[in-house]
């Protein structure tokens, strides 16, 4: 009888460890790229977040409007998170236009021009691809909040990607995915807003970027 109890306790402990390790990955998928070796950057120019509207002709007006709101809020979050970082320099859309009014070569040309004129060796850009508000309340929803964005840090000298990461999540209930227990617990087992989901995602990704330490 004692041996049976010991075995049950052992199996329970293994299950808890397994659930804890899996739950940290629930609900979001991230692709990350870091160019090695990592060399410190002296200055990082942070561009205003943009949307994927120009890259997706199927986006309707309501979706485009929501994405614009998401990009604006993403810009505010990034500024708040990095405002104490001495190597970061924030730019507005008007400043970007003034600095690079006519640049050929697409994003690589823009990055190179900004790096040269600002004396920054890195340029960070964020693109919001999905920004859907929850339908319901924090305790009951018909449709949960959903967010997707992509961040990329480029070397201004050659346009090479130094670091990149994306974030995609549609909030799930603990009952629909038992592996989401830790995440659900950190959110108070509530349905959060799209603003909260976006903020959590951006904080997670910025904390992972070695060039912003």
Secondary structure elements and pairings:
Layout: H1 2-23, E1 32-34, E2 44-46, E3 50-51, H2 61-82, E4 88-90, H3 93-99, H4 106-118, E5 122-132, E6 135-136, E7 141-143, E8 146-155, E9 161-170, H5 181-186, H6 194-208
Parallel strand pairs: 2-4, 2-5, 3-5
Antiparallel strand pairs: 1-9, 5-8, 6-7, 8-9
Helix pairs in contact: 2-6
Could you explain how this protein is built, in words?
The chain has 213 residues and is an alpha/beta fold. It has one domain (2-212): 2-Layer Sandwich (Double Stranded RNA Binding Domain), CATH 3.30.160. It is built from six helices and nine strands; from the N terminus they run αβββαβααβββββαα. The protein has helices at 2-23, 61-82, 93-99, 106-118, 181-186, 194-208, and strands at residues 32-34, 44-46, 50-51, 88-90, 122-132, 135-136, 141-143, 146-155, 161-170. Strands 1, 2, 3, 4, 5, 8 and 9 form a seven-stranded mixed beta sheet that branches. A two-stranded antiparallel ribbon has the order 6-7. Strand 6 and strand 7 form a beta hairpin. Helix 2 packs across helix 6. The protein starts with a helix and ends in a 5-residue tail after the last helix. The model is unreliable at 1-27 (pLDDT under 50).
Structural class: alpha/beta
The parts where pLDDT drops under 50 for at least 5 residues are 1-27
What distance separates the N and C termini?
Answer: 55 Å
User: Could you please say which CATH topology applies here?
Assistant: Double Stranded RNA Binding Domain
User: Any idea what the radius of gyration is?
Assistant: 21 Å
Tally of alpha and pi helices: 6
Tell me the β content.
15-25%
Q: At the first level of CATH, what is the class?
A: Alpha Beta
Biggest sheet descriptor: 7 strands, mixed
Whole-number total of structural domains: 1
CATH architecture: 2-Layer Sandwich
Quaternary state reads single chain
């Amino acid at each position: 009888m004692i041996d049976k109890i010991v075995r049950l306790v052992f199996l329970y402990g293994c299950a808890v460890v397994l659930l804890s390790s899996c739950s940290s990955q629930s609900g979001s998928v991230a692709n990350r790229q870091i160019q090695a070796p990592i060399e410190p950057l002296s200055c990082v120019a942070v561009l205003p977040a943009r949307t994927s509207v120009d890259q997706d002709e199927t986006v309707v007006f309501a979706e485009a409007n929501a994405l614009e709101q998401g990009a604006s809020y993403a810009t505010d979050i990034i500024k708040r998170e990095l405002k104490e970082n001495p190597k970061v320099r924030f730019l507005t859309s008007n400043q970007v236009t003034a600095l690079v009014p006519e640049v050929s070569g697409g994003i690589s040309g823009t990055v190179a021009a900004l790096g040269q004129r600002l004396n920054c060796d890195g340029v960070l850009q964020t693109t919001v691809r999905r920004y859907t508000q929850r339908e319901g309340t924090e305790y009951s929803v018909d449709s949960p909040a959903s967010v997707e964005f992509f961040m990329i840090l480029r070397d201004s000298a050659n346009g090479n990607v130094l670091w990149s990461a994306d974030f995609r999540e549609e909030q799930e209930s603990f009952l629909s995915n038992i592996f989401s227990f830790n995440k659900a617990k950190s959110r108070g087992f509530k349905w959060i807003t799209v603003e909260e989901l976006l903020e959590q995602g951006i904080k997670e990704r910025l904390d992972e970027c070695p060039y912003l330490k």
